[in-house]
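Hi support team,

I submitted a single chain yesterday and got back a structure, but I'm not sure I'm reading the token output correctly. Could someone confirm the output below corresponds to the sequence I sent? I've pasted both exactly as they appear in my results page.

Thanks,
R.
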Amino acid sequence: MRFINFYIILLLSNFVFSQNNSGCMDISALNYSPESDISDPLSCIYPSECSNNQQLIMIDILTESWSSEITWNITDNENNIVANSPNLNSFYGDYQVYTTYACLNINETYTFNSYDSYGDGWNGGLYNVSTCDGGLDIANNNNQPPSEFGNEETFLISLIDCSLYGCMDISSCNYDSNATYPSNCIFPDLFQDCNGDCINDINENSICDELDVFGCTDSSVVNYDESATFDDGSCLSNLSCSNDEIQVDIVIATDSYPSETSFTLNDNNGVVWNSGDSDNINSDYTSYPFQYCLPMEGCYIFTIFDSYGDGIFSGGGIEVYYESELVLSNPEFQYSSSVNMNCPPGFDCNTAIEVELGQHITITNDYWYLFEPENNGQYEINTCQSDCNTIIYVYDYCTGLLANSSEAFIYYNDDQCDIQSQVFPLFTEGQQYFIRIAADCNEIDWELNYVGPISGCTDETACNFNPIAEIDDESCIYPGNIDCVNGPDLYVLPFESTMYLESYQNEDGCAIEEGCLTGYGNRSIIRFDTWIKNVGNQDYFIGSVDDNSNTNQFEWDECHNHWHYKGYAEYVLFDLNGQIIPVGFKNGFCVMDLECSGDDDYGVEAGNYTYGCSVMGISAGCGDIYGSGLSCQWIDITDVPDGEYTFVVRTNWDQDPDALGNIELSYDNNWSQTCIGVFTNQEGVKDFYIATDVDGDGIENINDPDIDNDGFMNSQDQDIDGDGILNDLDEYPYGLGDCPSYTDCFGVEFGNSQLDCNGECGGQSVTGDMNFDFNLDILDMQSYSSEIISDDWLATTCNDLDLDNELTVSDISLLVNCVQNYDNLTRDNQSEPCNFGLEVTNPNDTVTLSIGEINVLEQYIDINVLNPNNEILGYQFKMENIEVTSVENLVDNYPITPYFSNDGIILGVSFLDSLIQKNYDPVPLCRVYFSSVEENVCIENIIDIVNQDYENVVTISDSQSCSQSFGIYSSENFTFMFYPNPCSDKLELKFKSNNFDKCNLQIRTLLGKSIFNETFTTNHFHKHISVKDFTSGVYLIELNIDEIKLSNKLVINQKQ
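Hi R., thanks for writing in. Yes, this is the structure output for that exact sequence:
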């Protein structure tokens, strides 16, 4: 559970607390101290979250005069006190606001008891009990001060969905346009606007003139800033924590996107002691101090988060102090950064215990050690003498590594010696390594041994050169030797028996970017093991990321901040036509020797454990296993059409040599496959079956008397395999007897040929190549844009890049990704920028378009955009009731020229991958000029908006913002327009004529009384008329031109 400190909104002065036997005496506080005899309300720590059967309530006390006379408590239906004020005449000051919190049981009744010791009531003071941050009042004595000696008010605690509550004051900084009910609002700090910019900053130094330099000006505290001339409240004072407590201080300085920043402070048991998010970190370029006294026996982990993934930048930062010692200072991070405090020895890599060679026993069931080898070579770590089920992890870095991290290791094993573990890492002299021993028991026996330097052939010209050998063992053989036929041979083992279906909830854009999943939300995935073995007579060498500039074996993963081996495995579904269906891809974050059992079928002896994540590879006779429980160890069948497919797992499918140039002895075994059927079950969820065993009963179709297990024997079943196709019409009425090897469109077994977009096997047609020059470039993007606007094209397999049967800005954006990011191409990755055919909509990104400024004189309408969740690459929308003449881009640093059609289709996209930055308030997107408009000009339809990750977003056309109606008369001789209608402030009129030089304009009541009458002696005019003094109602607006008289209703609707 997370906690927050008791706080006082207004400053309390002239009060001194005794420290003798003092403590928190509010029973609702988490640190309630019943043994205390002196109340210390400032020490109280209150809950900010409650258990599932409780509701968090906020209790506000607003004092007036004679506050020393008042007290209160809350009792349950058995008259037990569940929350209470400080003692009489001990704390409250006049004209103050005090706030506390309590967790009360849902569906139970409570009583707020107010007391006044003098008997003359609270003298104007009030109380308020609410939920949802003040959004819903549940007890407040009808906003009247308690009278006489006090009152009782009974209230019921109900389950409330606080997500419906938010600030509904549009002038506030935390205005929530999606809120259904109002709650607490936040307004700009003094001298600043909601963006944190100074209202007055004549010298333009980003420091408000009234405030000058901000910072901590107290030289006695740990975060004193000697350059500060105005104290910004960030000083970290001494909390005088008790002897059995430690003090933790945090200062968060926000950047321009404070709502992205949050933090947690939890212990090693997972209990969250404190946290912060947009509720209390909500202003840009502002310092937020947080200070806590925590129990000394705890081990605490502070984690800072950035929801967008770009850390805290542009002048922001973070400092964390543990007992006045700075332990974290402005770390560079993307999504998160952590630091541990007060943790016991061996808790994590920061507290790792230095260890030497020999036998050891851990203290706990998860213990960290620090080892610095004195010699290069191979070492052995094992827990084989332990009675526990153990796991060994080895890491070569510490920064950002969590105590329970199960990834980013360089060596790992959990079952080498029965349920115990053993690894053989390669260590470099003088480098630090972190060894983590984990098990299901404490006091784990383990040992660390030095095996010796790696020996082998050290001659690079030899056939059996060993790049990691330090001692030549005179084993080198050279070309011409009969044994000089060496090479690795990667073999993919069968995986069918490990397959199972899982429903997986995805909110991670990285999983899509890396090709692991094809969409957000609930996904149907098939998990399975991938076991790749080297059955050759030479190691398959990948090497270290340090050599990547020479070997090009690795790519940096921006999402998860670690290196990936680029071509570990590919998971492919082939349809009946041999075409690839995008379902998954596996980048290996580590390729290592996990088993070295050899292979009898290939005549390969057991290998030697050699490779780990620091130096990757697979030794001859060894194998690497990615278990089904690992991330991305699946295929995503959510969007796969029902039908039968060949499911293939393949490695080194493009037949690359290893990092040393060694070529595999054979590529025939780089594949393993099974045939599956994909279907939609009765719940509408995708499922699968093994095609050679349709009913999954363990009896293959060829031997199964009831293949589909429908209760009818095959001889009596009109649809034997249960696929919905009658036997006479079914090419395979008995299902598959075996799973034939996949062949490509040329009939080549395991071939790579595919149909091009025109259906020609191995054809040269390029998807997206609109000018047929066999290149994808900006010229194609321009062709897309022009043809989409003119609506001249039909969607085909060669131009519909996202395969949604429509041509929109979404297709152009995929082409932008391909052209601009082609240089970042990786080996056959399903998420490669030029692998088209996948449209993704991100449900977490929302963009709102609305009508902004309307200028009748210059004849334009501005379109505003609100995109707080994402940056925008491109947009396309349709306006209604308007004749468009041109469109102007209004976004800075987004160099585009919007495309448009006269009937209102507008398309904007950056061919150069420029982006519209995030906006937390509506800002101008584009200016639409018109020659004519009709009544009620609106954004009729938002066709597509694409974010920075080339994903479609959730779009909202703000129906509240459709422009108010125009009054329009148009003929070949003149045009007359008035706006808005209805009107409450100013009525705008525009008249233009080629033939008339005089006209009369009147506004009358329905009874004929003229309230405005003016004659114009010009062939054009533009005028504003104030209608503030007109009463609400219906009027007639009349225009008289020679013998022509025009009349229309005008509605005046004065705001109440």
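A quick pointer for reading it: The CA atoms of residues 376 and 428 lie 5 Å apart. Let us know if anything else looks off.

Best,
Support desk
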